[in-house]
Fold:
Amino acid sequence: MNHTTNQPVFLTLVRSPGELPLARVLIDSIRSFGGPLSQCPIWLFEANPGQAPCASLEGAGVRVLSLTVPATVRHHFFGDKVYACARAEELAGDSVRSLVWIDPMCLMVNPPLLFDLGQGFDAAVRPVHIRNVGLLADEPVDAFWRRVYDAVGVPDVLTTVESFVDAQCLRAYFNSHAFAVNPARGLLGRWFQLFESLVGDREFQAGPGRDERHHIFLFQAVLSALLVTALDPGRICMLPPNYNYPYNLHQSVPPDRRARALDDLVCVAYEDRAIDPALMDDIEVREPLRSWLSAHTENEPN
Structure:
């Protein structure tokens, strides 16, 4: 696919029929609220071709791409997501400056201008919402992170972040609901290679990677370690809190960080929360966003 302008490309993934409505709402939100980026190409990866009628979303700048996930990672959590990003990097060519991954359970409610990396950055990311498997900045490197750091070729990392909800100071650990990467740097293909290697490492999988949380979030740990070791810190844009805001964790967000209105945000992750404004009684939703959400959720289960 050739692009005549040096514009970002949005990426997302559908795994099942149940995710198709989520992808539809995400795509419509980009088109409605993306501002200068509203007409950027959108690549929708179909992880299980034939199981969901993704073809119904194709057209008007939306390209549906069948994704045959390698057997090496097919059954590992988020293996399809990592592979989709790697495939997008292969397809991007020289004219795409930003590949913007967005999970299907996200909304765009204002122009996501910082996802357009331009010439100044090679990645744009948010810190994680909660510590989860993150490594505290002042604790020794544990066996899980030691293996991840070994994979990227470093003994440790110095970059730290503060998790948004529980305010923990962690070694670099980034949220992956939405992020942007410059495909020219080859980071997404490298992400897949490292992830595939660690998934296939039986000793690691039976040891520090065996419990459910580390099993699930391996993909995110590898991406985080790769970004801060492959890129100069000045080439990483640390996105502000109105990007990837965790509406699914809204009640746990400290009051001084909690969003007052959905309209004040840029990109919202909602996961299992209803986005019907009639049911959103813990956050203000103003017009025209309220009417837009009502129209997009009137036929959807809550």
